[in-house]
Specification:
- It contains 12 helices and 11 strands.
- With 362 residues, the protein is of the alpha+beta class.
- Strand 8 and strand 9 form a beta hairpin.
- The longest helix is centred in the first third of the chain and has 40 residues.
- The two termini are 80 Å apart.
- Bound molecules: phenylalanine (PHE).
Length: 362
Amino acid sequence: MEQLEPTLAAIAAADTIEAVEALRVGALGKQGWVSALLKSLGGMSPEERTSTGPRIHAAREAVTAALGERRAALESAALEAKLAAETADLSLPAPATARGSVHPVSQVMDELAEIFADMGFAVATGPEIEDDWHNFTALNMPETHPARAMHDTFYFPDHDVQGRSMLLRTHTSPVQIRSMLSQGAPLRVIAPGRVYRSDSDATHTPMFHQIEGLVIDKGIHLGHLKWTLETFLKAFFEREDIVLRLRPSYFPFTEPSVEVDVGYTLINGKRVVGGSGDATNGGWMEVLGSGMVNRKVIEFGGLDPDEWQGFAFGTGVDRLAMLKYGMDDLRAFFDGDVRWLQHYGFGALDVPTLSGGVGVRA
Ligand code: PHE
């Protein structure tokens, strides 16, 4: 029992957790002196055991308590030291944090709104869940019209209260009808928004974005259409050498219908908008559908086609963004990959203005 005092003294003096552990093993471990004393109880006479036993147990408890106390003291000292070493210096500059960016589709829509606002166009909207009357019938596509089948439409199982089939709009053209019915004439609107078609590959996604343009006024002719598109494309691509080619085409809602190609030049194997497509290192690509609004559509819009004429156009916003900012896979637009968004996204303060430039990069 003579080891008790030196053991307690050594525990009190131990200055590391490891030293405390070594003292525990020396006293309470298998070979420890307390364990040896406990073992010796078996060979004692009952009287001896009665007098010595409690002293051995008391020694074991004293050592155990001293070890626990010392270990707790050392642990809290270690924690104090760690906390002292890890204080935050509030005078340091804030660390760089991830920031959001404006999606190129949003940016391009803002650019388009800015460009057309300058030409006197207001922004109109319509529902993405549309009925087949606005999406097809009123655009001169009666139920049996073959163009309906070409749209790969997503239909809803139920009809609306008027018995019309409900669908996800396949183009922004129904906003033409809604604008005429709600605002009458004269009219100058653009309608950007989401559209849906059951189609999916590298250049088609089931949801994409279009922008519609509609002008209704008196004495409107194809010359107005061509000037408007040329002015728009020059402002959008920010270059003067934009050359347009108008090709006769067919849309049920315009007559005549015109598909618009823009000339491009090949630069390092990439198509860059600008220059005549007839040059040896260039070509034409289709960017827009358009035409003079069909008389029947003007009637469906509640207006007299002998009094009012107009032109309309529609184009893909995602496609315009790709041509202007150089992305080559449409699907990445809708993946939400932060690396893509950081690379192609715009800063919140890059608000497009005609004076500051509609194409400021982040
Ligand atoms: N709505 C047509 C489409 O989605 C585009 C278009 C709009 C054509 C307006 C002519 C006039 O392809």
